[in-house]
């Protein structure tokens, strides 16, 4: 499994637009083959910071997601409401039992 944490800092004046875009991205990404989980959380201790936590079957699923129409559309619009580059961390995990 591949786990991705994508930390995004947004412009507080554009939070509503950001969340509208996220709703569409979440629904489409969760429907992808190879997606196990795709969730957005808001940091409670950092103003205007969200973390996308993604879990994928394998790197092939990640690659397919990264070229999907819904993801590339989101990336093209992200500069409009992000105030810093997205911080992305990838992890590889194996089920223990």
Explain the overall architecture.
The chain has 97 residues and is of the alpha+beta class. The protein contains 3 helices and 4 strands.
Pick out its properties.
Alpha-Beta Plaits; 3 helices; alpha+beta; 31% strand; four-stranded antiparallel sheet; 97 residues
List the helices and strands and how they pair.
Elements: E1 2-9, H1 15-30, E2 35-42, E3 49-56, H2 59-66, H3 69-78, E4 87-92
Antiparallel strand pairs: 1-3, 1-4, 2-3
Helix pairs in contact: 1-3
Radius of gyration: 13 Å
Sum up the overall morphology in one term.
globular
Helix content: 25-40%
Spatially, the strands of the biggest sheet line up as: 2-3-1-4
Mean pLDDT, as a whole number? 95
- Uncertain runs: none
* Count of discrete structural domains: 1
Element order, helices and strands? EHEEHHE
For the report, how would you describe the main beta sheet? 4 strands, antiparallel
The total strand number stands at 4
Give the helix/strand class.
Answer: alpha+beta
**DSSP strand (E) fraction?**
25-35%
For this structure, the CATH topology is Alpha-Beta Plaits
Q: How many helical elements?
A: 3
Question: What would you say the CATH architecture is?
Answer: 2-Layer Sandwich
> In CATH, what is the class?
Alpha Beta
């Amino acid at each position: 499994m591949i786990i991705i944490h994508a930390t995004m800092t947004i412009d507080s004046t554009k939070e509503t637009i950001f969340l509208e875009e996220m709703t569409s991205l979440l629904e489409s990404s969760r429907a992808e083959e190879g997606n196990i989980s795709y969730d957005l959380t808001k940091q409670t201790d950092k103003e205007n910071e969200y973390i996308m936590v993604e879990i994928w079957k394998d790197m092939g699923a990640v690659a397919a997601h990264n070229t999907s129409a819904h993801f590339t559309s989101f990336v093209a619009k992200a500069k409009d409401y992000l105030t810093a580059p997205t911080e992305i961390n990838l992890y590889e995990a194996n089920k223990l039992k």
